[in-house]
Amino acid sequence: MKKYAIAIHGGAGTITRSGLTPELEAAYKSALSEAIEIGDKILAEGGNALDAITESVRLMENNELFNAGKGSVFNHEGKHEMDAAIMDGKTLMAGAVSGIRNLKHPVLLAKAIMEKSAHVLLANSGAADFAKDMGLEFAPDEYFFVQHRYDQLLVAREEGQIVLDHTTPGDEKKFGTVGAVALDVHGNIAAATSTGGMTNKRWGRVGDSPIIGAGTYANNATCAISCTGHGEYFIRSVVAYDVSCLMEYKGLSLKEACDIVVMKKLVKLGGEGGLIAIDAAGNIEMPFNSEGMYRAMKRSGEDLFIGIYKD
Amino acid sequence: MKKYAIAIHGGAGTITRSGLTPELEAAYKSALSEAIEIGDKILAEGGNALDAITESVRLMENNELFNAGKGSVFNHEGKHEMDAAIMDGKTLMAGAVSGIRNLKHPVLLAKAIMEKSAHVLLANSGAADFAKDMGLEFAPDEYFFVQHRYDQLLVAREEGQIVLDHTTPGDEKKFGTVGAVALDVHGNIAAATSTGGMTNKRWGRVGDSPIIGAGTYANNATCAISCTGHGEYFIRSVVAYDVSCLMEYKGLSLKEACDIVVMKKLVKLGGEGGLIAIDAAGNIEMPFNSEGMYRAMKRSGEDLFIGIYKD
User: Fold this and answer.
1) A90 at the B interface (CB within 8 A)?
2) B 206-245 residues with CB < 8 A to A
3) B139 burial level (CB within 10 Å; 0-12, 13-18, 19+)
4) Where are the domains of chain B?
5) Per-residue pLDDT tens for B26-67?
6) Is ipTM over 0.90?
Protein backbone atom coordinates (compact mmCIF):
# COMPACT_ATOMS: atom_id res chain seq x y z
CA MET A 1 0.00 0.00 0.00
CA LYS A 2 1.38 3.36 -1.06
CA LYS A 3 1.56 6.12 1.52
CA TYR A 4 -0.67 9.15 1.51
CA ALA A 5 -1.00 12.08 3.90
CA ILE A 6 -2.78 15.39 4.38
CA ALA A 7 -2.41 18.44 6.62
CA ILE A 8 -4.63 21.48 7.01
CA HIS A 9 -4.57 24.79 8.85
CA GLY A 10 -7.25 27.27 9.87
CA GLY A 11 -5.08 30.26 10.67
CA ALA A 12 -2.40 31.29 13.17
CA GLY A 13 -1.97 34.05 15.73
CA THR A 14 -2.29 34.85 19.40
CA ILE A 15 -4.41 31.83 20.19
CA THR A 16 -4.16 30.82 23.85
CA ARG A 17 -6.00 28.39 26.12
CA SER A 18 -7.32 31.25 28.22
CA GLY A 19 -8.61 33.00 25.09
CA LEU A 20 -10.78 30.11 23.88
CA THR A 21 -13.85 28.82 25.72
CA PRO A 22 -14.12 25.02 25.92
CA GLU A 23 -17.12 25.23 23.57
CA LEU A 24 -15.21 27.22 20.97
CA GLU A 25 -12.20 24.94 21.26
CA ALA A 26 -14.42 21.93 20.68
CA ALA A 27 -16.04 23.62 17.71
CA TYR A 28 -12.65 24.34 16.09
CA LYS A 29 -11.49 20.76 16.69
CA SER A 30 -14.67 19.39 15.22
CA ALA A 31 -14.37 21.63 12.15
CA LEU A 32 -10.72 20.69 11.60
CA SER A 33 -11.54 17.02 12.01
CA GLU A 34 -14.38 17.20 9.51
CA ALA A 35 -12.24 19.09 6.98
CA ILE A 36 -9.29 16.74 7.14
CA GLU A 37 -11.48 13.64 7.03
CA ILE A 38 -13.02 14.56 3.69
CA GLY A 39 -9.55 14.97 2.17
CA ASP A 40 -8.22 11.84 3.83
CA LYS A 41 -11.13 9.81 2.44
CA ILE A 42 -10.36 10.96 -1.11
CA LEU A 43 -6.70 10.01 -0.67
CA ALA A 44 -7.55 6.63 0.87
CA GLU A 45 -9.66 5.81 -2.17
CA GLY A 46 -6.72 6.57 -4.48
CA GLY A 47 -7.85 10.09 -5.37
CA ASN A 48 -5.54 12.94 -6.29
CA ALA A 49 -3.85 15.29 -3.85
CA LEU A 50 -5.37 18.21 -5.77
CA ASP A 51 -8.91 16.95 -5.22
CA ALA A 52 -8.25 16.14 -1.57
CA ILE A 53 -6.96 19.60 -0.69
CA THR A 54 -9.70 21.28 -2.71
CA GLU A 55 -12.41 19.46 -0.78
CA SER A 56 -10.77 20.08 2.60
CA VAL A 57 -10.46 23.79 1.87
CA ARG A 58 -13.98 23.93 0.43
CA LEU A 59 -15.35 22.52 3.68
CA MET A 60 -13.49 25.13 5.73
CA GLU A 61 -14.83 27.81 3.38
CA ASN A 62 -18.29 26.71 4.52
CA ASN A 63 -17.52 27.24 8.19
CA GLU A 64 -18.04 30.57 9.93
CA LEU A 65 -15.18 29.80 12.30
CA PHE A 66 -12.60 30.33 9.60
CA ASN A 67 -11.67 33.50 7.74
CA ALA A 68 -12.35 32.15 4.24
CA GLY A 69 -15.47 31.77 2.12
CA LYS A 70 -18.59 32.21 4.26
CA GLY A 71 -16.62 33.24 7.37
CA SER A 72 -14.56 35.88 5.54
CA VAL A 73 -13.91 39.12 7.41
CA PHE A 74 -15.42 42.42 6.30
CA ASN A 75 -13.27 44.94 4.44
CA HIS A 76 -13.39 48.70 5.02
CA GLU A 77 -16.45 49.06 2.79
CA GLY A 78 -18.31 46.33 4.65
CA LYS A 79 -17.81 43.87 1.79
CA HIS A 80 -15.95 40.59 1.46
CA GLU A 81 -12.96 40.37 -0.86
CA MET A 82 -11.44 36.93 -0.93
CA ASP A 83 -8.16 35.46 -2.22
CA ALA A 84 -7.22 31.87 -2.98
CA ALA A 85 -4.56 29.81 -4.72
CA ILE A 86 -3.80 26.23 -5.66
CA MET A 87 -0.69 24.56 -7.09
CA ASP A 88 -0.01 21.12 -8.50
CA GLY A 89 3.41 19.75 -7.51
CA LYS A 90 3.46 17.32 -10.42
CA THR A 91 3.05 19.81 -13.27
CA LEU A 92 3.94 23.09 -11.52
CA MET A 93 0.62 24.38 -12.83
CA ALA A 94 -1.02 26.96 -10.59
CA GLY A 95 -4.18 29.02 -10.31
CA ALA A 96 -4.98 31.97 -8.08
CA VAL A 97 -7.59 34.66 -7.55
CA SER A 98 -7.53 37.93 -5.64
CA GLY A 99 -10.30 40.31 -4.61
CA ILE A 100 -13.17 38.02 -5.59
CA ARG A 101 -16.60 38.95 -4.18
CA ASN A 102 -19.71 36.90 -3.43
CA LEU A 103 -18.21 33.64 -4.62
CA LYS A 104 -19.01 30.76 -2.27
CA HIS A 105 -15.82 28.84 -2.91
CA PRO A 106 -12.76 30.81 -4.02
CA VAL A 107 -10.68 27.60 -3.98
CA LEU A 108 -12.87 26.19 -6.76
CA LEU A 109 -12.18 29.30 -8.81
CA ALA A 110 -8.43 29.00 -8.25
CA LYS A 111 -8.65 25.40 -9.45
CA ALA A 112 -10.69 26.40 -12.51
CA ILE A 113 -8.18 29.13 -13.38
CA MET A 114 -5.40 26.54 -13.20
CA GLU A 115 -7.23 23.93 -15.23
CA LYS A 116 -9.38 25.92 -17.65
CA SER A 117 -7.56 29.20 -18.37
CA ALA A 118 -4.18 30.13 -19.84
CA HIS A 119 -3.53 32.28 -16.78
CA VAL A 120 -2.31 31.91 -13.23
CA LEU A 121 -3.75 34.95 -11.44
CA LEU A 122 -7.10 36.65 -12.11
CA ALA A 123 -8.39 39.55 -10.03
CA ASN A 124 -11.56 41.29 -8.89
CA SER A 125 -14.56 41.72 -11.18
CA GLY A 126 -12.69 40.18 -14.10
CA ALA A 127 -12.15 37.05 -12.04
CA ALA A 128 -15.87 37.08 -11.20
CA ASP A 129 -16.69 37.12 -14.92
CA PHE A 130 -14.50 34.07 -15.41
CA ALA A 131 -16.13 32.34 -12.43
CA LYS A 132 -19.56 32.98 -13.99
CA ASP A 133 -18.34 31.52 -17.29
CA MET A 134 -17.24 28.45 -15.32
CA GLY A 135 -20.67 28.14 -13.71
CA LEU A 136 -19.35 28.54 -10.16
CA GLU A 137 -21.78 29.37 -7.38
CA PHE A 138 -22.26 32.93 -6.14
CA ALA A 139 -24.12 34.04 -3.04
CA PRO A 140 -25.60 37.35 -1.91
CA ASP A 141 -23.94 39.50 0.78
CA GLU A 142 -26.31 38.04 3.39
CA TYR A 143 -24.70 34.61 2.98
CA PHE A 144 -21.39 36.11 4.07
CA PHE A 145 -22.87 38.06 6.98
CA VAL A 146 -21.53 36.69 10.24
CA GLN A 147 -22.35 38.75 13.33
CA HIS A 148 -19.01 38.41 15.12
CA ARG A 149 -17.16 39.35 11.92
CA TYR A 150 -19.33 42.46 11.61
CA ASP A 151 -18.66 43.35 15.24
CA GLN A 152 -14.94 43.07 14.45
CA LEU A 153 -15.38 45.53 11.60
CA LEU A 154 -17.22 48.04 13.77
CA VAL A 155 -14.47 47.88 16.38
CA ALA A 156 -11.72 48.10 13.78
CA ARG A 157 -13.41 51.05 12.07
CA GLU A 158 -13.76 52.83 15.40
CA GLU A 159 -10.11 52.23 16.21
CA GLY A 160 -9.06 53.11 12.66
CA GLN A 161 -7.14 49.87 12.42
CA ILE A 162 -6.65 47.31 9.75
CA VAL A 163 -6.58 44.06 11.64
CA LEU A 164 -5.59 40.56 10.77
CA ASP A 165 -8.67 38.37 11.08
CA HIS A 166 -9.88 39.72 14.37
CA THR A 167 -8.85 41.74 17.35
CA THR A 168 -11.79 42.65 19.50
CA PRO A 169 -11.24 44.00 23.02
CA GLY A 170 -9.87 41.13 25.04
CA ASP A 171 -9.88 38.90 21.99
CA GLU A 172 -6.86 37.26 20.43
CA LYS A 173 -5.00 38.40 17.33
CA LYS A 174 -5.35 35.90 14.51
CA PHE A 175 -4.19 35.60 10.96
CA GLY A 176 -7.23 34.07 9.42
CA THR A 177 -6.58 31.81 6.47
CA VAL A 178 -7.29 28.21 5.65
CA GLY A 179 -5.09 25.85 3.73
CA ALA A 180 -4.31 22.25 2.90
CA VAL A 181 -1.39 20.23 1.58
CA ALA A 182 -1.44 16.57 0.61
CA LEU A 183 0.48 13.63 -0.81
CA ASP A 184 -1.50 11.07 -2.80
CA VAL A 185 -0.80 7.40 -3.53
CA HIS A 186 0.45 8.38 -6.98
CA GLY A 187 3.33 10.25 -5.31
CA ASN A 188 2.05 13.72 -6.18
CA ILE A 189 1.81 16.62 -3.76
CA ALA A 190 -0.29 19.80 -3.93
CA ALA A 191 -1.13 22.90 -1.90
CA ALA A 192 -4.13 25.24 -1.59
CA THR A 193 -4.89 28.37 0.44
CA SER A 194 -8.01 30.52 0.86
CA THR A 195 -8.67 33.67 2.88
CA GLY A 196 -10.86 36.69 3.47
CA GLY A 197 -7.79 38.76 4.31
CA MET A 198 -7.72 41.50 6.94
CA THR A 199 -10.70 43.02 8.75
CA ASN A 200 -11.25 46.63 7.64
CA LYS A 201 -8.70 46.24 4.82
CA ARG A 202 -8.67 49.09 2.31
CA TRP A 203 -7.27 50.00 -1.06
CA GLY A 204 -7.69 46.51 -2.52
CA ARG A 205 -4.99 45.11 -0.25
CA VAL A 206 -3.84 41.64 -1.32
CA GLY A 207 -1.93 39.37 1.05
CA ASP A 208 0.32 36.39 0.44
CA SER A 209 -2.34 33.70 -0.01
CA PRO A 210 -2.86 34.12 -3.80
CA ILE A 211 0.83 34.80 -4.48
CA ILE A 212 2.49 31.68 -5.85
CA GLY A 213 5.83 31.33 -4.05
CA ALA A 214 4.76 33.44 -1.07
CA GLY A 215 1.63 31.92 0.52
CA THR A 216 1.23 28.86 -1.68
CA TYR A 217 3.66 26.61 -3.57
CA ALA A 218 3.99 22.97 -4.61
CA ASN A 219 6.69 20.98 -6.39
CA ASN A 220 6.98 17.18 -6.27
CA ALA A 221 10.77 17.57 -6.15
CA THR A 222 10.65 19.43 -2.85
CA CYS A 223 7.46 20.25 -0.95
CA ALA A 224 3.92 21.62 -0.94
CA ILE A 225 3.27 24.60 1.33
CA SER A 226 0.31 26.68 2.52
CA CYS A 227 1.02 29.69 4.74
CA THR A 228 -0.93 31.74 7.26
CA GLY A 229 0.33 34.90 8.87
CA HIS A 230 1.04 38.59 8.39
CA GLY A 231 0.90 38.49 4.61
CA GLU A 232 3.15 41.44 3.85
CA TYR A 233 6.11 39.73 5.56
CA PHE A 234 5.34 36.46 3.83
CA ILE A 235 5.35 38.19 0.41
CA ARG A 236 8.64 40.02 1.04
CA SER A 237 10.20 36.75 2.26
CA VAL A 238 8.78 34.62 -0.59
CA VAL A 239 8.16 32.14 2.23
CA ALA A 240 6.75 29.07 0.48
CA TYR A 241 9.35 29.03 -2.30
CA ASP A 242 12.11 29.75 0.21
CA VAL A 243 11.38 26.47 1.98
CA SER A 244 11.44 24.72 -1.40
CA CYS A 245 14.78 26.31 -2.38
CA LEU A 246 16.44 25.43 0.93
CA MET A 247 15.54 21.82 0.22
CA GLU A 248 16.47 21.85 -3.47
CA TYR A 249 19.63 23.94 -3.38
CA LYS A 250 20.97 23.31 0.12
CA GLY A 251 19.82 19.74 0.53
CA LEU A 252 17.99 20.46 3.79
CA SER A 253 15.18 18.25 5.07
CA LEU A 254 11.63 19.57 5.12
CA LYS A 255 11.92 20.09 8.87
CA GLU A 256 15.24 21.94 8.67
CA ALA A 257 14.00 24.19 5.87
CA CYS A 258 10.73 25.01 7.69
CA ASP A 259 12.57 25.79 10.93
CA ILE A 260 14.94 28.23 9.23
CA VAL A 261 12.21 30.06 7.33
CA VAL A 262 9.49 30.24 10.00
CA MET A 263 11.44 30.27 13.27
CA LYS A 264 14.52 32.23 12.17
CA LYS A 265 14.12 34.30 8.98
CA LEU A 266 10.50 35.36 9.52
CA VAL A 267 11.08 36.05 13.22
CA LYS A 268 14.10 38.23 12.37
CA LEU A 269 12.00 40.27 9.93
CA GLY A 270 9.08 40.49 12.39
CA GLY A 271 6.72 38.29 10.38
CA GLU A 272 4.25 36.46 12.60
CA GLY A 273 2.52 33.28 11.43
CA GLY A 274 3.13 29.74 10.33
CA LEU A 275 2.71 27.20 7.56
CA ILE A 276 1.90 23.59 6.80
CA ALA A 277 4.28 21.62 4.62
CA ILE A 278 4.48 18.14 3.13
CA ASP A 279 7.06 16.38 0.98
CA ALA A 280 6.81 13.46 -1.44
CA ALA A 281 7.96 11.05 1.29
CA GLY A 282 4.94 11.99 3.37
CA ASN A 283 6.81 14.04 5.96
CA ILE A 284 4.67 16.80 7.43
CA GLU A 285 5.77 19.94 9.26
CA MET A 286 3.46 22.55 10.79
CA PRO A 287 5.74 25.23 12.29
CA PHE A 288 4.47 28.58 13.60
CA ASN A 289 6.11 31.42 15.49
CA SER A 290 2.83 32.75 16.93
CA GLU A 291 1.01 31.62 20.08
CA GLY A 292 -1.06 29.11 18.22
CA MET A 293 -2.18 27.71 14.88
CA TYR A 294 -5.34 25.75 14.12
CA ARG A 295 -3.96 22.65 12.46
CA ALA A 296 -4.48 18.97 11.78
CA MET A 297 -2.69 16.15 10.02
CA LYS A 298 -3.43 12.57 9.07
CA ARG A 299 -1.10 10.03 7.52
CA SER A 300 -2.14 6.66 6.10
CA GLY A 301 -2.05 4.12 8.90
CA GLU A 302 -1.64 6.72 11.61
CA ASP A 303 -3.97 8.52 14.00
CA LEU A 304 -5.45 11.92 13.30
CA PHE A 305 -3.58 14.77 15.03
CA ILE A 306 -5.34 18.03 15.87
CA GLY A 307 -3.52 20.96 17.45
CA ILE A 308 -4.34 24.54 18.39
CA TYR A 309 -1.79 25.76 20.94
CA LYS A 310 1.99 25.60 21.10
CA ASP A 311 2.02 22.56 23.33
CA MET B 1 35.29 56.36 -5.87
CA LYS B 2 32.64 53.76 -5.09
CA LYS B 3 31.15 51.80 -7.97
CA TYR B 4 27.63 52.25 -9.24
CA ALA B 5 25.73 50.66 -12.10
CA ILE B 6 22.31 50.48 -13.71
CA ALA B 7 20.56 48.26 -16.25
CA ILE B 8 17.13 48.62 -17.87
CA HIS B 9 14.91 46.62 -20.18
CA GLY B 10 11.99 47.50 -22.43
CA GLY B 11 10.58 44.03 -23.05
CA ALA B 12 11.61 40.80 -24.75
CA GLY B 13 10.22 38.61 -27.52
CA THR B 14 10.52 37.81 -31.20
CA ILE B 15 12.45 40.95 -32.00
CA THR B 16 14.54 40.54 -35.15
CA ARG B 17 16.55 42.87 -37.40
CA SER B 18 14.19 42.21 -40.27
CA GLY B 19 11.21 43.05 -38.08
CA LEU B 20 12.38 46.52 -37.10
CA THR B 21 12.77 49.43 -39.51
CA PRO B 22 15.97 51.47 -39.10
CA GLU B 23 13.83 54.36 -37.87
CA LEU B 24 12.12 52.25 -35.20
CA GLU B 25 15.41 50.73 -34.13
CA ALA B 26 16.88 54.21 -33.73
CA ALA B 27 13.83 55.32 -31.76
CA TYR B 28 14.14 52.38 -29.35
CA LYS B 29 17.86 53.02 -28.87
CA SER B 30 17.26 56.67 -28.23
CA ALA B 31 14.52 55.89 -25.70
CA LEU B 32 16.68 53.33 -23.88
CA SER B 33 19.61 55.74 -23.84
CA GLU B 34 17.49 58.55 -22.42
CA ALA B 35 15.98 56.27 -19.75
CA ILE B 36 19.29 54.87 -18.55
CA GLU B 37 20.97 58.26 -18.54
CA ILE B 38 18.52 59.76 -16.07
CA GLY B 39 19.13 56.87 -13.66
CA ASP B 40 22.89 56.95 -14.23
CA LYS B 41 22.98 60.66 -13.44
CA ILE B 42 21.23 60.11 -10.10
CA LEU B 43 23.68 57.37 -9.20
CA ALA B 44 26.69 59.45 -10.28
CA GLU B 45 25.59 62.22 -7.95
CA GLY B 46 25.45 59.78 -5.03
CA GLY B 47 21.69 59.19 -5.20
CA ASN B 48 19.93 56.01 -4.16
CA ALA B 49 19.38 52.96 -6.36
CA LEU B 50 15.66 53.21 -5.57
CA ASP B 51 15.43 56.75 -6.94
CA ALA B 52 17.53 55.90 -10.00
CA ILE B 53 15.38 52.95 -11.05
CA THR B 54 12.18 54.84 -10.34
CA GLU B 55 13.20 57.68 -12.65
CA SER B 56 14.40 55.35 -15.40
CA VAL B 57 11.14 53.42 -15.31
CA ARG B 58 9.11 56.62 -15.08
CA LEU B 59 10.73 57.88 -18.27
CA MET B 60 9.92 54.65 -20.09
CA GLU B 61 6.33 54.92 -18.82
CA ASN B 62 6.17 58.20 -20.75
CA ASN B 63 7.18 56.59 -24.02
CA GLU B 64 4.64 55.10 -26.43
CA LEU B 65 7.25 52.60 -27.62
CA PHE B 66 7.05 50.62 -24.40
CA ASN B 67 4.15 48.64 -22.97
CA ALA B 68 3.94 50.53 -19.67
CA GLY B 69 2.31 53.78 -18.58
CA LYS B 70 1.29 55.82 -21.64
CA GLY B 71 2.19 53.06 -24.10
CA SER B 72 0.24 50.36 -22.26
CA VAL B 73 -1.68 47.89 -24.38
CA PHE B 74 -5.48 47.76 -24.45
CA ASN B 75 -7.31 45.06 -22.50
CA HIS B 76 -10.38 43.23 -23.78
CA GLU B 77 -12.67 46.08 -22.72
CA GLY B 78 -10.54 48.66 -24.53
CA LYS B 79 -9.12 49.95 -21.24
CA HIS B 80 -5.64 50.02 -19.75
CA GLU B 81 -4.92 48.00 -16.62
CA MET B 82 -1.36 48.40 -15.43
CA ASP B 83 0.86 46.55 -12.96
CA ALA B 84 4.10 47.63 -11.29
CA ALA B 85 6.42 46.69 -8.46
CA ILE B 86 9.51 47.95 -6.69
CA MET B 87 11.80 46.38 -4.08
CA ASP B 88 14.59 47.73 -1.91
CA GLY B 89 17.49 45.30 -1.53
CA LYS B 90 18.70 46.97 1.66
CA THR B 91 15.51 46.65 3.71
CA LEU B 92 13.61 43.98 1.74
CA MET B 93 10.72 46.42 1.71
CA ALA B 94 8.52 46.15 -1.37
CA GLY B 95 5.53 47.80 -2.99
CA ALA B 96 3.37 46.64 -5.87
CA VAL B 97 0.15 47.45 -7.66
CA SER B 98 -2.04 45.46 -10.04
CA GLY B 99 -4.92 46.47 -12.29
CA ILE B 100 -4.45 50.21 -11.84
CA ARG B 101 -6.25 52.42 -14.40
CA ASN B 102 -5.58 55.92 -15.67
CA LEU B 103 -2.52 56.46 -13.50
CA LYS B 104 0.32 58.11 -15.39
CA HIS B 105 3.10 56.42 -13.44
CA PRO B 106 2.35 53.06 -11.83
CA VAL B 107 5.98 52.85 -10.63
CA LEU B 108 5.41 55.92 -8.45
CA LEU B 109 2.40 54.21 -6.90
CA ALA B 110 4.40 51.04 -6.22
CA LYS B 111 7.03 53.20 -4.49
CA ALA B 112 4.37 55.04 -2.45
CA ILE B 113 2.82 51.73 -1.39
CA MET B 114 6.26 50.56 -0.21
CA GLU B 115 7.08 53.77 1.61
CA LYS B 116 3.73 55.10 2.83
CA SER B 117 1.46 52.10 3.46
CA ALA B 118 1.63 49.03 5.69
CA HIS B 119 1.02 46.87 2.65
CA VAL B 120 2.94 45.33 -0.23
CA LEU B 121 0.29 44.76 -2.90
CA LEU B 122 -2.76 46.91 -3.63
CA ALA B 123 -5.14 46.22 -6.50
CA ASN B 124 -7.60 47.86 -8.86
CA SER B 125 -9.93 50.66 -7.74
CA GLY B 126 -8.74 50.35 -4.16
CA ALA B 127 -5.20 51.03 -5.32
CA ALA B 128 -6.52 54.03 -7.26
CA ASP B 129 -8.06 55.41 -4.05
CA PHE B 130 -4.68 55.10 -2.35
CA ALA B 131 -2.97 56.79 -5.31
CA LYS B 132 -5.43 59.68 -5.04
CA ASP B 133 -4.70 59.97 -1.31
CA MET B 134 -1.02 60.16 -2.24
CA GLY B 135 -1.68 62.92 -4.75
CA LEU B 136 -0.38 60.95 -7.71
CA GLU B 137 -1.22 62.10 -11.23
CA PHE B 138 -4.08 60.54 -13.18
CA ALA B 139 -4.84 61.03 -16.87
CA PRO B 140 -7.94 60.45 -18.99
CA ASP B 141 -8.26 57.50 -21.37
CA GLU B 142 -7.19 59.74 -24.27
CA TYR B 143 -3.72 60.11 -22.77
CA PHE B 144 -3.27 56.35 -23.03
CA PHE B 145 -4.66 56.12 -26.57
CA VAL B 146 -1.92 55.03 -28.95
CA GLN B 147 -3.06 54.14 -32.45
CA HIS B 148 -0.82 51.12 -33.03
CA ARG B 149 -1.85 49.69 -29.65
CA TYR B 150 -5.50 50.10 -30.60
CA ASP B 151 -4.87 48.40 -33.93
CA GLN B 152 -3.31 45.52 -32.01
CA LEU B 153 -6.48 45.21 -29.93
CA LEU B 154 -8.72 45.15 -33.01
CA VAL B 155 -6.63 42.40 -34.57
CA ALA B 156 -6.49 40.44 -31.32
CA ARG B 157 -10.24 40.76 -30.78
CA GLU B 158 -10.87 39.57 -34.33
CA GLU B 159 -8.58 36.59 -33.83
CA GLY B 160 -9.98 35.94 -30.38
CA GLN B 161 -6.51 35.92 -28.94
CA ILE B 162 -4.94 37.25 -25.84
CA VAL B 163 -1.54 38.40 -26.96
CA LEU B 164 1.58 39.42 -25.16
CA ASP B 165 2.26 43.06 -26.01
CA HIS B 166 1.63 42.76 -29.72
CA THR B 167 1.26 40.32 -32.50
CA THR B 168 -0.08 41.95 -35.60
CA PRO B 169 0.09 40.14 -38.95
CA GLY B 170 3.75 40.03 -39.90
CA ASP B 171 4.64 41.72 -36.65
CA GLU B 172 6.85 40.25 -33.97
CA LYS B 173 5.71 38.71 -30.70
CA LYS B 174 6.83 40.79 -27.76
CA PHE B 175 6.48 40.62 -24.03
CA GLY B 176 6.03 44.26 -23.26
CA THR B 177 7.33 45.35 -19.90
CA VAL B 178 9.86 47.87 -18.69
CA GLY B 179 12.19 47.48 -15.76
CA ALA B 180 15.34 48.73 -14.09
CA VAL B 181 17.88 47.46 -11.57
CA ALA B 182 20.69 49.47 -10.01
CA LEU B 183 23.57 49.52 -7.54
CA ASP B 184 24.29 52.82 -5.82
CA VAL B 185 27.52 54.14 -4.25
CA HIS B 186 26.13 53.22 -0.82
CA GLY B 187 26.25 49.56 -1.82
CA ASN B 188 22.48 49.13 -2.07
CA ILE B 189 20.65 47.47 -4.93
CA ALA B 190 17.00 47.75 -6.01
CA ALA B 191 14.62 46.59 -8.75
CA ALA B 192 11.48 47.98 -10.40
CA THR B 193 9.11 46.70 -13.10
CA SER B 194 6.10 48.25 -14.86
CA THR B 195 3.76 46.92 -17.54
CA GLY B 196 0.45 47.21 -19.34
CA GLY B 197 0.24 43.41 -19.55
CA MET B 198 -1.27 41.54 -22.50
CA THR B 199 -3.26 42.99 -25.38
CA ASN B 200 -6.90 41.92 -25.17
CA LYS B 201 -6.38 40.46 -21.69
CA ARG B 202 -9.59 39.52 -19.87
CA TRP B 203 -10.82 38.52 -16.47
CA GLY B 204 -8.48 40.85 -14.59
CA ARG B 205 -5.45 38.80 -15.62
CA VAL B 206 -2.33 39.69 -13.62
CA GLY B 207 1.14 38.73 -14.82
CA ASP B 208 4.44 38.37 -13.00
CA SER B 209 5.48 42.03 -12.90
CA PRO B 210 3.74 42.96 -9.60
CA ILE B 211 4.49 39.62 -7.95
CA ILE B 212 7.44 39.97 -5.58
CA GLY B 213 9.68 36.95 -6.16
CA ALA B 214 8.35 36.30 -9.67
CA GLY B 215 8.83 39.42 -11.84
CA THR B 216 10.60 41.64 -9.33
CA TYR B 217 12.97 41.02 -6.41
CA ALA B 218 15.88 42.69 -4.65
CA ASN B 219 18.16 41.69 -1.79
CA ASN B 220 21.56 43.27 -1.11
CA ALA B 221 22.85 39.82 -0.12
CA THR B 222 22.25 38.40 -3.58
CA CYS B 223 20.78 40.37 -6.49
CA ALA B 224 18.14 42.73 -7.85
CA ILE B 225 16.02 41.40 -10.72
CA SER B 226 13.38 42.71 -13.13
CA CYS B 227 11.79 40.23 -15.54
CA THR B 228 10.00 40.43 -18.88
CA GLY B 229 8.32 37.51 -20.57
CA HIS B 230 5.33 35.20 -20.60
CA GLY B 231 4.17 36.07 -17.08
CA GLU B 232 2.37 32.86 -16.23
CA TYR B 233 5.58 30.85 -16.60
CA PHE B 234 7.53 33.41 -14.60
CA ILE B 235 5.00 33.19 -11.74
CA ARG B 236 5.02 29.40 -11.66
CA SER B 237 8.84 29.41 -11.71
CA VAL B 238 9.17 32.19 -9.10
CA VAL B 239 11.91 33.40 -11.45
CA ALA B 240 13.40 36.42 -9.68
CA TYR B 241 13.66 34.74 -6.28
CA ASP B 242 14.97 31.57 -7.91
CA VAL B 243 18.02 33.47 -9.18
CA SER B 244 18.51 34.88 -5.68
CA CYS B 245 18.23 31.44 -4.03
CA LEU B 246 20.69 29.84 -6.44
CA MET B 247 23.20 32.51 -5.38
CA GLU B 248 22.42 32.37 -1.66
CA TYR B 249 21.97 28.63 -1.15
CA LYS B 250 24.15 27.14 -3.90
CA GLY B 251 26.86 29.79 -3.97
CA LEU B 252 26.47 30.39 -7.70
CA SER B 253 27.59 33.61 -9.36
CA LEU B 254 24.99 36.01 -10.73
CA LYS B 255 25.82 34.81 -14.25
CA GLU B 256 25.57 31.11 -13.37
CA ALA B 257 22.26 31.60 -11.57
CA CYS B 258 20.77 33.65 -14.42
CA ASP B 259 21.86 31.10 -17.01
CA ILE B 260 20.25 28.21 -15.15
CA VAL B 261 16.95 30.01 -14.57
CA VAL B 262 16.48 31.75 -17.94
CA MET B 263 18.28 29.47 -20.38
CA LYS B 264 17.56 26.08 -18.78
CA LYS B 265 14.64 26.00 -16.30
CA LEU B 266 12.40 28.48 -18.14
CA VAL B 267 13.19 26.96 -21.53
CA LYS B 268 12.33 23.49 -20.21
CA LEU B 269 8.95 24.74 -18.95
CA GLY B 270 8.30 26.68 -22.21
CA GLY B 271 8.58 30.12 -20.64
CA GLU B 272 9.81 32.72 -23.13
CA GLY B 273 11.43 35.95 -21.99
CA GLY B 274 14.36 37.34 -20.10
CA LEU B 275 15.49 39.47 -17.19
CA ILE B 276 18.00 42.05 -16.06
CA ALA B 277 20.01 41.38 -12.93
CA ILE B 278 22.60 43.18 -10.82
CA ASP B 279 24.52 42.22 -7.69
CA ALA B 280 26.16 44.30 -4.96
CA ALA B 281 29.56 43.98 -6.71
CA GLY B 282 28.13 45.73 -9.77
CA ASN B 283 27.95 42.64 -11.98
CA ILE B 284 25.16 42.87 -14.53
CA GLU B 285 23.49 40.06 -16.46
CA MET B 286 20.78 40.48 -19.10
CA PRO B 287 19.91 36.95 -20.28
CA PHE B 288 16.93 36.17 -22.52
CA ASN B 289 15.76 33.03 -24.31
CA SER B 290 13.69 34.91 -26.91
CA GLU B 291 14.87 36.44 -30.21
CA GLY B 292 15.59 39.77 -28.64
CA MET B 293 15.27 42.02 -25.61
CA TYR B 294 15.40 45.82 -25.51
CA ARG B 295 18.10 46.46 -22.96
CA ALA B 296 20.82 48.82 -21.82
CA MET B 297 23.44 48.98 -19.08
CA LYS B 298 25.88 51.53 -17.76
CA ARG B 299 28.53 51.05 -15.11
CA SER B 300 30.54 53.84 -13.49
CA GLY B 301 33.64 54.49 -15.61
CA GLU B 302 32.40 52.36 -18.48
CA ASP B 303 30.65 53.05 -21.78
CA LEU B 304 26.91 52.78 -22.22
CA PHE B 305 25.77 49.48 -23.77
CA ILE B 306 22.52 49.24 -25.71
CA GLY B 307 21.25 45.97 -27.15
CA ILE B 308 18.16 44.75 -28.97
CA TYR B 309 18.97 41.49 -30.78
CA LYS B 310 20.72 38.31 -29.74
CA ASP B 311 24.03 39.35 -31.23
Assistant:
1) no
2) 206-207, 211-214, 217, 231-232, 235-238, 241-242, 245
3) middle
4) 5-309
5) 999 999 999 999 999 999 999 999 999 999 999 999 999 999
6) yes
